[in-house]
Amino acid sequence: MTSDFAPAGTLDARDATRLRVLQCIRSAGTISRTDIARALDSSPATVTSACGALLDAGLIREERRMPSENVQRGRPRVMLQINGEAFAVAGLKVAREAIVVMIVDFRGDEIGSFVSPLEASCMDPDGLVQEVRRALDAACARHGLDTARIAGLSLGIPGFVNGETGFMHWSSSVTERNVDFAPLFRKHLPCPTFLDNDANLVAKAEHLFGAGRGLSNFLVVTLEHGVGMGIILNGELYRGERGCGAELGHMKVQFGGALCQCGQRGCLEAYVGDYALVRDTSTGQQSDAAKSIQDILHAARNGDRLAREVLDRASQILGVALANLVNLFDPEHIVLARSRPPFDHPYTEAMLTSLRRNTVQVDAPLPEITVRNLDEMMWAKGAAALGIEMVTILKIRERGTQDAA
Amino acid sequence: MTSDFAPAGTLDARDATRLRVLQCIRSAGTISRTDIARALDSSPATVTSACGALLDAGLIREERRMPSENVQRGRPRVMLQINGEAFAVAGLKVAREAIVVMIVDFRGDEIGSFVSPLEASCMDPDGLVQEVRRALDAACARHGLDTARIAGLSLGIPGFVNGETGFMHWSSSVTERNVDFAPLFRKHLPCPTFLDNDANLVAKAEHLFGAGRGLSNFLVVTLEHGVGMGIILNGELYRGERGCGAELGHMKVQFGGALCQCGQRGCLEAYVGDYALVRDTSTGQQSDAAKSIQDILHAARNGDRLAREVLDRASQILGVALANLVNLFDPEHIVLARSRPPFDHPYTEAMLTSLRRNTVQVDAPLPEITVRNLDEMMWAKGAAALGIEMVTILKIRERGTQDAA
DNA sequence: AATTTTTATTTTGATCGGTGAAATAATTGT
DNA sequence: ACAATTATTTCACCGATCAAAATAAAAATT
């Protein structure tokens, strides 16, 4: 049942403590044992023992502290930090035209990246896994890394994916439906491999390294061709019962409204997705087909009324959708990750105004909103973030069994 | 910090185990120790000891088993069940015209109920608490109960309430905003008292006693004057960061749409709330003001086209809103609790069709939908459900400290 | 320079919850 | 009566955590 694929939840009490300590160190960056004990509200003794194990496993290291302004009396604290060299993890984002790879160390720092072009944007499962293998090998080769140093591999893919089992219900990148990737990964790839919805990965990245660090309840909305969302509740990715929730792009914002790619009406994507903007600004004239988001923005800036209206409406509707999220989830924070600048100023302003206007009024302040640029690499980095988490658990477990032996 | 008010989260390992065992017994109804061990995946020894404590505390009891079809060899299992007589809890729902009280035993079975009329539908905090006291005393008197037997009291109130702290941001029943009820409760009421949003209470009731028994992720949508929602995620009430999420009634389903009571546009309530139906079926003629939902339904049944259209649209829009929830939360189950019959057949059908049509298509089946009648008493019972849970925790803790002494 | 004070970490010994194994209990089948 | 079977309890132990004591490493003081 608990295969390689989903190692979480299988931690005994001791390993759970070690993991907590590790995560505390990671989120603090640099921290002493005493402060860890304080932060986790546990005894120094416990922290000492957990840190011992983590040091033995090579996952953290002691830092010879700066002789600087530590103007304190008493025995100086020994600072601990994540040992970046512990292992490397590859994050891969399967996009339309390429597989984007980012290799990061255990700290999450980039070691190198690589873009491996794809012949076809939609492949059969076996073909996809082989492309992944090719991308991984090429990325390692480019940066002079032995593929064996990669301790884990994490794959972000658009579509409905159950990140806990590796089962894919549907993806725009895969010809077949209902594929169990776990065995394919085991067969073709050299290290433990994890699969998740790409928006979930960005959420994970924000949670581990970005604006969501240390938060328990926050949302990440991704804005590119489509609109996606990752949900962190109680400090964990919420995946829904069947592993395919968070379909913000197909939230209906207008009853009987505009037609969406998915065949339904009034979906958010049908107003704010790239293709919707292109469609709605087209006037039936000449070069419309070639119109890009850039063109539309440009036109709007030059006073084109249609372009302005479409962008304005998109911003407002996006604000409504975010307001719906605030009304439903009441999160601490929302990260709005957009690929290209269609929602740049002044549209971000319009969006925020609409958000405020459509939120149920409580005296408590609204959740913070962070707008973040999201290039292709960020997706891959998000994948890597998940990989780090998963492999960390594997390593801690491994260590545990070694102790026992 | 951890006052009387929110006893959860303050359980040590042992009490947590006891609580798990107790909840297992509750959700099973009648179960043997061996089966509990199997269900909780723990050792029989642990279960024995936990049950010992629970028996001592009088929270559960052994059932002399039926001599019936237990055609098994070996030592017969001793069945355990919740001891209803352990204590009583009062659930109160603050409605517009009355406070509805239900007194239940520890099993959740009704001991008696009472409706205590209110002079005013909106009171100052002190007045409200005194009305609560009056309602409690009257209910006890009616059923010949000593008020001292009530081990806990739980209050459901419409509005934005932080159920974990007892802090009320706003409620339609209270003249003031931002009231901390906890000290008022301590001052005027004879037993530990808890406060929560009324929709949360119905969710709790479904989780403990209704369609959500044993489920981890499900939603309860309440349909009456307004539209509310309770969210259970990972087996717990999700309250959002500021304790005021789940505002389904103000989810925008139509950009720039119909005007809502709240002053915003396109809210779900503005299409499916009682007052919206009345408004939208009014033709500017004579007795419109007196029109009731019953009248509208009746008119529709008799072929009135406007009434039909309005009800049809309401059903469809409700379906869209539920589809949004499915797309976002991917729950196991949704309970639709409606107070009066505006969404009876054939409108329930229309609603379900709309739900199906607006859900993102995955091969996995849709969550189950249960439609449930929700009379005023159910709200009170929901409140009682929360009360049972809270008091259970208090009792288990109490028992723990007794042991220590 | 030696000593005191202060703070951080480790060691030690005790506690406690959970567990497996063995013992006991309560049946049915022979 | 005795064997077989299943449920529960008892018991000895393990391992995680913790408080307290010991130790370590510095700064301040003498």
UniProtKB/TrEMBL annotation, chains A, B:
<dbReference type="InterPro" id="IPR036388">
    <property type="entry name" value="WH-like_DNA-bd_sf"/>
</dbReference>
<protein>
    <submittedName>
        <fullName>Xylose repressor, putative</fullName>
    </submittedName>
</protein>
<dbReference type="Pfam" id="PF00480">
    <property type="entry name" value="ROK"/>
</dbReference>
<dbReference type="Pfam" id="PF13412">
    <property type="entry name" value="HTH_24"/>
</dbReference>
<comment type="similarity">
    <text>Belongs to the ROK (NagC/XylR) family.</text>
</comment>
<dbReference type="InterPro" id="IPR000600">
    <property type="entry name" value="ROK"/>
</dbReference>
<dbReference type="InterPro" id="IPR049874">
    <property type="entry name" value="ROK_cs"/>
</dbReference>
<dbReference type="InterPro" id="IPR011991">
    <property type="entry name" value="ArsR-like_HTH"/>
</dbReference>
<dbReference type="GO" id="GO:0006355">
    <property type="term" value="P:regulation of DNA-templated transcription"/>
</dbReference>
<dbReference type="InterPro" id="IPR043129">
    <property type="entry name" value="ATPase_NBD"/>
</dbReference>
<dbReference type="InterPro" id="IPR036390">
    <property type="entry name" value="WH_DNA-bd_sf"/>
</dbReference>
